[in-house]
Each structure stands twice: as C-alpha cells, then as structure tokens.
Design a protein that fits this description.
Blueprint: E1 3-10, E2 18-24, E3 31-40, H1 43-50, E4 59-60, E5 64-72, E6 84-87, H2 97-100, E7 118-119, E8 126-127, E9 137-141, E10 145-147, H3 154-157, H4 163-174, E11 182-186, H5 190-202, E12 206-211, H6 214-223, E13 227-230, H7 236-242, E14 249-254, H8 259-268, E15 269-277, H9 291-297, E16 300-303, H10 311-323, E17 335-337, H11 342-351, E18 357-360
Parallel strand pairs: 4-8, 11-12, 11-14, 12-13, 14-15, 15-16, 17-18
Antiparallel strand pairs: 1-2, 1-4, 2-7, 3-5, 3-9, 3-18, 5-6, 6-10
Helix pairs in contact: 4-5, 7-8
Length: 361
C-alpha cells in the first residue's frame, strides 16, 4: 500500500520550494521505508534547488536525516521495524573494485531505492542524494540505513548523515590528523566547525579557524579552535604561518571550495603537509597553480568524499562518543523548524545566522 505524506519539493531551478503531497511506495526488495524524525538543512539542498547538482527536477529535498524504520522489503535481514537509524547517501555495494580492495568509502556502485517516490499526479521525484528526507516518510535502500543508539536525539543524530560527518571525517579519515599536529580550517560553517571538532578529537594542539564572519569565528572557538584569523583583515597564509612557527600547518582543510581558499590552503600548509578539499565546488570553477610548486612542496592534496566515512563504522562510534559526553553535537543545531520553514532556512544559511536549521517531524 502506498503512503501519502507531505514533503518539500524543488520544482524548477531557482524557484522557491513548496510543500507538496507525495506518494511513497511500500519497500520492495532491498528497500526500507523510514519515518523521518529530523533532517538538517544543508547547502547541498540549496545547490539542488538552484540546479547546481543536475537538472533532474522535480527534486524531493533533504538528506541529513534520522528516523525510525517502518517497514523493510524482501531480502533485508539486518534491519527491523522500530530500528532507529541515521540515513546515509553512500550505501556501499561491497563488490566493486574499491570495496574489494578494502576501501569501501570510495565505493563506485553505491545503492539507492529502485522505486520512485512521486507527486500526487504520478510525476517521479528525484530524491536529494538518493534520500529525500524533507518528508514525513521516505523510501531508501536498506544499506542507506545505519542503526545507532536510540538514546541520541534525532535532531543531533541526523547531522551525522552529511555535514558533521563530512567535517569530522575530513580531519580524521582524510587528513589523518594526529596527536600534536597543527590544523587550519578555512570556512567555519557547519562542515568547517565539524572539522575543528574532528581535529580536536584526533589530538591536534594548534587548531586555526579562518573565516570572514566574526560570529562564525566565535562559534569556531566554542567548538575547539585555539586561534582565529579574520580573512577580511589579515593575510591568511602569513597568519597561519606565524601561528605555526613560520612553517605552515600540518593539515589545512578547505571547507569552502573556491579557487581562492584552495590556493590559500595549498600555500598555508607546511612542506610535505596535507591539503584536504571538503568544500564542494561548483562545476564551473577552476584553479591554476605553478606545477613546480606542486612538485617542490611535496605532501598530499586530497579531496574528501563524505569525510571518507564508512557509515556502518563511523556513525555508531560518533553517537557513542556523543552519549559519553566526549563529542558535543548539540551546538551545531541552531534552530528547529517545520517543513513549511525550509525556504526561510535557506535565507538564514545565506546570511550566516545559523550553523544548522533542523526540520523536526
């Protein structure tokens, strides 16, 4: 039996989103029906609305979510109705060449639900990142559901589904920050602040936050930054070098994803240091660097897909740290809102007044 629910839809590029009646089918083989409890408003949803991801409109937005499994399809043996889950957008296949060589975080054949969710008139919807969780219920592949401790509040747990995991993973998994390292983070929104939290968890002793917004720099300090640099009034590269004994940081994380910040990250790292790009660039952006500098500086330049996470490994671990009081995720939740407030949440994201607006259902 199909389910009729309310969901937030982007109908055409650049237009305001609307709450529409959508139809969600019962789960088929390998699928799960999830009652969504909370879903964060992420920049990626805004990119979808603006047509910056692809043009497969209409989109059912929302992907940074937690909820409760309502039903599972044939062949699903590791989930049961009632399980509390965080949704992920990289459900690994375990059979592609990346998975077979022991690097499932690079999986090239990730799974999504096979059946479409639709508008009331039968128009198929494209769920954001294969999830579509700005809705009362959503249909996903069972591998997109990661069971976690149900004692964690949904509005906190759901943030691991994208931004917080991307930032923490950029520091720990991709950047491989170690004890005593120096780390600089360019861009102190939700992902950048999560990278600061990840660097602190990994034992970095110097953590430098860089942003143009004084309010965001205050948030970054509350998250664990030991130093701040206002990029509007200071030379970013020289400031990072001064704070690291003239050498540059061991790891520099670009959480913005534009040519200017990428170049700053490249030149602000120590010789043989690591640059991590976790901010998502738009398809039109290019960067130019002297090839001799790429050669002479050594080290590594890495992109971080989803914080190079393995959801089945990382989500439960981070929730356990949260419940133990060792990882405070609550400051990431600036406000809780309803489905009708998503467009206003995009405006708040633009003006920098929130780290995360979270839709609760």
């Amino acid at each position: 039996m199909a389910h009729t629910v309310q969901g937030v839809v982007a109908g055409v590029a650049g237009a305001k989103v609307s709450v529409e009646t959508i139809t969600v089918p019962d789960p088929g083989p390998g699928e799960a029906l999830v009652e969504v409890k909370a879903c964060g408003v992420c920049h990626t949803d805004l990119h979808y609305r603006e047509g910056g991801i692809n043009d497969e409109f209409p989109f059912l937005l929302g992907h940074e979510a937690a909820g409760v499994v309502e039903a599972v399809g044939e062949g699903v043996n590791d989930l049961s109705p009632g399980d509390f889950v965080v949704l992920n957008w990289r459900a690994v296949c375990w059979t592609c060449r990346a998975c077979r060589r022991g690097e499932p975080w690079y999986c090239f054949e990730t799974h999504n639900a096979a059946q479409p969710m639709t508008l009331a008139d039968g128009t198929p919807l494209s769920p954001a990142l294969g999830i579509g969780a700005f809705a009362e219920k959503t249909l996903v592949h069972s591998g997109q559901c990661t069971k976690v401790d149900p004692r964690a509040p949904a509005e906190v747990a759901g943030l691991l589904g994208c931004g917080v995991m991307a930032g923490i993973g950029a520091a720990i998994n991709t950047g491989q920050v170690g004890r005593g390292d120096s780390v600089a983070v360019l861009g102190c929104g939700g992902v950048g602040d999560a990278a600061i939290v990840g660097a602190r968890l990994a034992g970095a002793t110097t953590i430098i936050a860089v942003d143009l917004d004084p309010k965001k720099l205050e948030w970054a300090q509350a998250m664990g930054a030991t130093h701040v640099v206002n990029a509007g009034s200071a030379d970013v590269i020289e400031s990072i070098r001064e704070l690291t004994g003239g050498n540059g940081a061991d790891v520099v994380i670009d959480a913005v994803g534009i040519p200017q910040t990428f170049k700053q990250a490249f030149y602000a790292r120590d010789l043989a240091g690591t640059v991590v790009l976790v901010g998502v660039p738009t398809p039109d952006l290019t960067v130019e660097l002297p090839l001799i500098d790429v050669f002479a500086r050594g080290g590594a330049i890495k992109s971080s897909w989803y914080g190079d996470c393995l959801p089945s490994r990382d989500f439960p671990m981070l929730i356990d740290l949260y419940l133990q009081g060792r990882l405070d995720l609550s400051p990431f939740v600036t406000e809780t809102i309803g489905l009708d407030d998503v467009e206003e949440a995009f405006d708040a994201m633009h003006d920098g007044s929130v780290l995360r607006s979270v839709v609760t259902l």
